[in-house]
């Protein structure tokens, strides 16, 4: 989603890579000169990434290494001309080998943050998670006061709703102030392919902070978002509603009601059962019990260093 | 979970790799001799894997390539001695480079299945998914008759419950025939570290096929599984209940009620919102409405080639 702040935007640009490429100039200091590893902050065997804290010329640095995805148009060259294979296992029709491709077909992307502050290092440090079971009373006595004390700015959301920003990105709008919403692409999606299609519907009415504020009165709004959002995505992108995972987050990342529309095959962050709530389930639950989300115990994960978790612990509930 | 059949076991062995390693013998035919790429069956940019269908000496072959995870103990060597970096982007403290590591630190795992049958090729072909919205009536008129027509064998489940198999693997049992269950490690978990802890609770009562069969009478059983399962895992593995994602699948992979206990930080397959149902939510829903899962529209994804989806289409519901 649209996010305020320069920091986030700069990181997005880094993530997406620049337009041109050049070679490190010979005269400059090597960006990893004398690199000393201090610690492994995090690693993912699945993603083939590793996050390192190290020192370069007495400066702290964070180095993120990620192996390259395979490319359909160059993969044949990996297997051509009888490449050297080291056998690991052979069993009937199955064989497992180790292959050492030529370096140009086997690059590693290295992101270097230098000098890195304590905050950078902490950001990439693997954080333990803990589940919270938030009762309706917990919400009112712990979570709501916490949200109010943080005074998170959502001016950027109001800018979108008032067409002061991102007006050219709007895919669909229902302008009704009580039952309407704006649908636009999430910033995580580059809009180049529908495999990872990701849009956000932001509701026009203000003051609905999250799932917790929903009641039976909001059913027409939610049904508009579901039906019109699906129709607009079918018309614009040719993707059917049954190919979309449509859900809310609890906790959300900002406290103005919004709904995620994501390609079913795309493993976006935050689609796990303890964070995502299918909009179709939310509608059914409110039809069953208009107060469902006011009384319900909601389970979600917090990082152990998040201030909200400390509030729960202070209250003897974490 | 324990799975019947030799095929699965053989594949597990291949996945986990063999104990020893050797080098391809010089005299034998090269396993990729004259490899011709026919098609890319599937690829994952996130996992750095690609699944290929090709031909080797007129035989069909499936080749699965996967880049190696980074290893904490060798990663320093990648960054030592001022390796050649190709600059992609530099912005303030952020730099993105391409690094070409020496081949021995940058292997690719190649799994070769040869000769591959049509079935192998289809197995690895990327399958489109489609969401189904299954009403209670759909369940009774489409899904239940389909399940009954398949006569899936769950003898292996009964073998566990009767201690005819895997008795030495049991972590906890409540032997009550109506309110009891057996907890044991899932086969996906090698039990060497708790990061990816994965256990399954299999209920003693028979005939509860899935979530759909649950009603208010099952609350004591479900609460036993939740409470005793958490306590047993804390005692045996030192992992607290608030560090466990505890859920059921719908559709499940076999039709005898079972509950997954998985480390919260482990991104196991099937933890997404359209497949997993938190046990704590299931309990609350049944307390709210004893018939919740008989009447509820449940949303889940099917591969477009699954026979159940065809049943829905035949009924005009897919």
UniProtKB/TrEMBL annotation, chains A, B:
Keyword entries, A-Z: Cytoplasm, Hydrolase, mRNA processing, Nucleus, Phosphoprotein
Uppermost EC category: hydrolase
Domain of life, source organism: Eukaryota
Gene3D superfamilies registered for this protein in UniProt: HIT-like, Scavenger mRNA decapping enzyme, N-terminal domain
E.C. number(s) listed in UniProt: 3.6.1.59
Region (Disordered) residue spans: 1-28
Signal peptide: none
PROSITE patterns, A to Z: HIT_1 (PS00892)
Biased composition range(s): Basic and acidic residues: 1-12
Catalysis performed (reactions): a 5'-end (N(7)-methyl 5'-triphosphoguanosine)-ribonucleoside in mRNA + H2O = N(7)-methyl-GMP + a 5'-end diphospho-ribonucleoside in mRNA + 2 H(+)
UniProt key word Hydrolase: yes
Presence of keyword Cytoplasm: yes
Predominant localisation class: cytoplasm
Subcellular location: Cytoplasm; Nucleus
UniProt similarity note: Belongs to the HIT family.
Subunit-level organization: Homodimer. Associates with components of the exosome multienzyme ribonuclease complex, such as EXOSC3 and EXOSC4. Interacts with NDOR1.
Function: Decapping scavenger enzyme that catalyzes the cleavage of a residual cap structure following the degradation of mRNAs by the 3'->5' exosome-mediated mRNA decay pathway.
Protein's name according to its UniProt entry: m7GpppX diphosphatase
